Amino acid sequence: AGRPVTDKRAVGRDPQKLEAAGGAAALELMVRYTDLDANNHVISTRYIGWLLDAHGLEFHRDHIPRSLEINYLSETRAGESVAVYMSETAPGEFSYLLRKPDGREAARARVLWEQEA
Predict the structure, then answer these.
(1) pLDDT tens-digit series, residues 9-37
(2) Count of alpha carbons within 13 Å of 61, Cβ hemisphere only?
(3) d(Cα 109, Cα 94) in Å, to the nearest integer?
(4) Are 72 and 107 in contact, with CB atoms under 8 Å apart?
(5) What's the distance, CA 33 to chain centroid?
(6) Are 54 and 60 in contact (CB under 8 A)?
(7) How many separate helices (H) and strands (E) can be counted in the chain?
(8) Could you please report the per-residue DSSP string of 59-105?
């Protein structure tokens, strides 16, 4: 019959519920056509691109993301806007919150950045 079901995980542990970032919005954007899949929902990788875009070019010139965790919390669709909030919670560790105008959270994320030598 089929393959046996296993309990292996890609990261070796259960996913964590991430804390929301605070502060002011670092980036505000409108969902565009190229952000969408065939069902008119934002493609999951676009959320990651948006939180990376919240940092300026200078930051990216000397930082490399070493790990990323994301909690997808609600669907985002064409025509909606999203605000990206971020806060540095520890040296090199940033928390992010992607929020829609109605207050619903689209995603929460945490990225560990390493500064290049």
Answers:
(1) 666 667 688 988 888 899 999 999 999 99
(2) 3
(3) 8
(4) yes
(5) 19
(6) no
(7) 2, 5
(8) HHHSEEEEEEEEEE-S--BTT-EEEEEEEEEETTEEEEEEE-TTS-E
> From CA 41, how far away is CA 78, in angstroms rounded?
7
For 72, the 3-state DSSP assignment is strand
Q: Parallel, antiparallel, or unpaired: how do β-strands 93-99 and 25-30 relate?
A: unpaired
115 close to 96: Cβ distance less than 8 angstroms: no
Whether 106 contacts 47, CB under 8 Å: yes
Q: What is the pTM of this model?
A: 0.85
**Token digits for 53?**
């875009």
| 108, 58 contact by CB (below 8 A) | no
What are the pLDDT digits (tens) for 76-109?
999 999 999 999 999 999 999 999 999 999 999 9
Residue 44: both structure tokens together? 């999951």
35, two tokens: 């952000």
**Amino acid found at 48:** I
If DSSP codes are grouped into helix, strand and coil, which group holds residue 1?
coil
Which tokens is 51 given?
């939180």
